[in-house]
Fold each of these.
Amino acid sequence: MSHTLTMMISQEEIAQRVQAIAIEINEHYKNSEAVILIGLLRGSAIFLADLSRLLTVPVILDFMATSSYGKGTDGGEVKILKELDEEIHGKDVLIVEDIVDTGNTLNKIKKMLLLRDPKSLAICTLLNKPARRQAEVVIDWQGFSIEDKFVVGYGMDYAQLYRNLPYVGIVNFD
Ligand code: IMP
Ligand code: MG
């Protein structure tokens, strides 16, 4: 579909927020043995790369890939395409996400991971689109709350393109 992009959040604004979040996360986990950061592929890759490099607490990186299907029925099913490599039982776990939209993905992943009995389980997302929420998600750290617009960049895609944009842009369909 033909479209244009307009800037929503600049590279500088993102960098400032990521830094502020990193300070809070460092403080929160200052007594932790290690925090397992779980990046949800592929959208969280850029945020995870920037955020993790600002963390001074011991960090372990792991990744999970999911796909949702059957949207509209029971809020959609979430299927795991790539499991974690780490055992999270008794560990501090922080899920890192690009954007919480309907909330279905994180609602289900959080329930799934809680069954493994981590010491703690928190959620950090760059963006939050509360207008579209269907399932409850408690967000522990968020970069920005945004309006109901389709956005790309800083990890997020439209038809797999634009993930490498250094800023967050709105896709305008014409
Ligand atoms: P959910 O609706 O909260 O389950 O969000 C699932 C996933 O949809 C997010 O993690 C993103 O990868 C993707 N997504 C939701 N809104 C947008 C958007 O505006 N742009 C790009 N991807 C999005
Ligand atoms: Mg995502």
Amino acid sequence: MPADFDTIVNLATKRGFVFQSSEIYGGLRSAYDYGPLGVELLRNVKEQWWRSMVQLREDVVGVDTAVIQSPLVWVASGHVASFSDPLVECKVCHNRFRLDKLEDPNRCPECGSSDSFTEPRAFELMFKTHMGPVASEENIVYLRPETAQGIFINFENVRRTARKKLPFGIAQIGKSFRNEITPGQFVFRTREFEQMEMEYFCRPEDADEWFQYWLEARRDWYLDLGMSEDNLRLRPHATDELSHYSSGTYDVEYLFPWGWDELEGIANRTDFDLKAHAEMSGQDLRYFDAERNERFYPYVIEPAAGATRTTFAFLIDAYHTETVRGETRAVLRLDARLAPIKVAVLPLSKKEELISVSRELADSLRPHWMIEHDITQSIGRRYRRQDEIGTPYCVTVDFDTLDDRQVTVRERDSMAQDRIPIDRLISYLADRLP
Ligand code: GAP
């Protein structure tokens, strides 16, 4: 059964994963801030993506391009002309909806009125602002709605400087902005979010094969990080769903509490973008194959994931409750690579002689992992808190420690406990943690 939505939102806000943005001013709808635990989880998700997509691959390099680019980029890419959603307004309650997301296009889901919608109009999804001191039509710029275009416009720079031959990929993680009509479901759909995208350039005749390859590789990434296979599926887009640049797309979907929804899109973007930028800029962006003595536009396979959305899915997927000795325990069974805190160090009581040992121990572990030194509340409550935030190991310093220089290590999922000498603790944990 998928986890209950309210429970996850409650956990996320109560434990400091995610806060409503501008909360002290009443909150800004559809923007969120990541708290001390959320920022670690989000960083770990991005780190794992980068490791699998860039670090471990000979054929992929990374970039970090500007959020604000020449407005011509968005003309060439087709976003200025066609990056919009069909918007309708209910003439009775004045709520606005995306026409393509309505269950019944003739009935308002808010007030129930029939045939009360205005004619659909295209709602521009890009955020506009002005560059420079004067706000005029000439200096309109956009906040990027996808990180991908920063990669396409640097194709030749990267190919030349990284000395890459086809097939090769360029990866990027960064913020994107979309003025969504219907943001919602917590951090699932927001107006400011983070993406993890990779453009894989290949010979046109090899594109189908690489498309299949990336479908499988991306699905395996989620599974390898512990996402439940039952909650993950690949769904092909129907022809009328395809983006303007795509000849074929699959979504990696997750079974969210409200049903199946998109985590990542994997698209065959063909040579649409490179050709469009070559035409708009006047630069020759064709690839030269010296062995075959031919010049052509490569095709592009694009796995495009949401970092914030994926982080949310990992949080939901890891959440479990179970009964232990008659009590309900909530535990986040996050893969240790994703867990925000790897080890909690807990003195059994607030006695100064225990705290000085546990603090010293925590300090000795900090260069290796994210550590929490927690001296508040009863030991039982502290264990429960660490379970609920997904900490794989708790190390407890008790009064015997003062004599035998040993500590108790408790593993999160099995709750099994080992007594370990302090001078062997780092190697014990290193055998079990990333
Ligand atoms: N470059 C292709 C592209 O941007 P997309 O399917 O529109 O494709 C890719 O976006 C991923 O970015 C989505 O699968 C989703 O995970 C994430 N994403 C898109 N819009 C989002 C939003 N408003 N809030 C959070 N994540 C979003």
